[in-house]
TrEMBL record:
Organism: Siphonobacter curvatus
Highest taxon of the lineage: Bacteria
Compartment(s) of residence: Cell membrane
Entry protein name: Transporter
Pfam families: BCCT
Family: Belongs to the BCCT transporter (TC 2.A.15) family.
Entry's Gene Ontology cellular component terms: plasma membrane
A molecular-function term among this protein's GO annotations: transmembrane transporter activity
Bilayer-spanning residue ranges: 12-35, 55-73, 93-114, 143-166, 186-212, 232-254, 266-287, 323-340, 352-371, 414-438, 450-470, 476-496
InterPro entries, per the entry: BCCT_transptr
Keywords assigned by UniProt, alphabetized: Cell membrane, Membrane, Transmembrane, Transmembrane helix, Transport
The UniProt record lists the keyword Transmembrane: yes
Record membrane topology: Multi-pass membrane protein
Main location: membrane
Amino acid sequence: MSRLPSFLAQTTFHKGIILPSLLFIFFVTFVSSFFPDSTASILGQIQDWIFINLNWVYVWSVTLFVFFLLALVVSKYGSITLGDDDAVPEYSFLSWISMLFAAGMGIGLMYFSVSEPLAHFSDPTFAEYSEIKRAKDAQLYTFFHWGIHAWAIYGVVGLSLAYFTYRYKLPLSLRSCFYPILKNRINGVAGNVIDSFALCSTFFGITTTLGFGVVQLNAGLVELGLIPEKGFSYQVAIVMAIMAISIFSATSGVNKGVKFLSQLNIFSAVLLMLFILITGPTVFLLGSLSEGVGDYLNQFLSLTFNTHAYEPSVQPWYFRWTILYWAWWISWSPYVGLFIAQISKGRTIREFIIAVLLIPTAFNFLWMTVFGNSATWLDRNVANGSLTDIVSKTDELLFQFLNYFPASGLTSSLAVFLIFVFFVTSADSGIFVMNSISTANAARSPKWQLVAWGILLALVALVLLNAGGLQSLQTMTLITALPFSIVMLLFCYSLLQGLLVDSYYYSKAFSPSARNWSGEFWKQRLQRILSFKDQSYVETFIQQTVEPALQELASEFNSQRISTAVRKKENPMEIALTIEHESIENFTYGVRTQLKTISTSLVAEKNIPGVRGTQSYIPETFFGDNRPGYNIEYFTEKEVIADVLKQYERFLELSSEIKNEIFTDTTLRRKE
């Protein structure tokens, strides 16, 4: 019997996730490829029924997401860090914003920046309105669809994942967001089902975007004269080029490929936008931006809650645009949310929400104004309606629009480049996320797995593109947004439960039996206050005061049949007493040598003796749950013992309460 090659034998795939996901992906691909018409018809009827009868579910879900996040911004929970209290962001602010933006909707801005405003402007539903009102409403509805509501959907998933992953040390997967509800059952079948759903949703979302977007790229290359016609053979070559670069970028890691391409995207997009702004109707665009933002803010609540129940003639447009957008953003949220969470460790909740909601929204408003309002202005004043005549040809519309500007060949080339790179960034971050889901967030995976996901994406996209099954796949993805909107509401509930416990756990005071040291040794403490502490001073304190105290305590614990150990490290010196447990967190009380920077104004003060420079050292405590420590340089040996007992009493009190299991229960972190 032949054996698998060594590189294939080494895999980090989770069987409970990868096997059902691949079976479902292959089944849907088969049905959509061989029965595209009948599948599209059935799924289309289901989608229409959902949009007509259950559109209020999407409306209320998205509304709750927006107000839930805004409430967190102004609450006391906004200052909580996504990680340990001393965690710092892994990426610079610019890199972070570039990556979350490019993964979120970068390619959509290229595809819809001209076509959507023109579509609203020319839609027969609003034919009775004046030309000016139709132009204003086109901008307003575009802002609505690409504004805070869209990013709130991504924000809920991203924040929930980042919080439970970095705050509670759970796996970076959707199952972790259900821990307050499911507890340890997230490690079983329920967790596998949740992650499989996320994996399939991500795969199908990227596949449909890749398939439809390739058609626009094909049209752009024809416009530039680089290829003679639109055809499947050229689309195969485009897909292969995109996936080859995407695979290379994904295997290079987030810190290299994804980060570099995301920043390149933003720079190139801003360059193209500034060119259109400067060479287009600049004064009109800047004025309309101001009016558009004002209209958006003024009608925010009306837009949010309006279902057009009293306007049946408007509802078909409403289902075709607003409800479809909410469903599309929800269906994409597992993928985008996972990627945003991956790059957001160390941010505070307030910083995360403000950045995710406002910065991309502000850029979207500027982008859509420059391109969309330029298009409607040109159509009304220069093109004599020729742009609205081809509004249904979305693939070609952007390039026809650019023909009205100077250096159209150059700008079209830049647009093609942007579309191409946006596709690459969506695909490479998608490959990275899918591998993370399918491996249950394994620390390291062989690169062949990333390559395999890239190849599978390319093959499925080409098969469905050739067979005409992409529409069916897109419709099915939109249908799955309905149940996932309910899942996201449960995310909000779980996140709120986690935050409540978080606040209680970290603000828990000592019990009445725990008191601070008295003034019995006040002269000795005063002498220590007035002395300069260098590293050797603190190490001597640890050796002569802390170590004997911990050793004496450990001896007493062991005599009580509580297995306890004291471990010591050098350079810099630290010592810790640890009581190891099986089903709850270990209790650790340690003291380390910590560098402390002193204010220069204190150094210059003549009435404070003993200060010799801007750097000093202190003996600082640390604990097993990563709470901030404190200075114990004035403690005596007996007071160190008392302090450990206070912390141990607090630890037992917290561990005895059922609601604190989310922090104290360690069984969920064990590998299956």
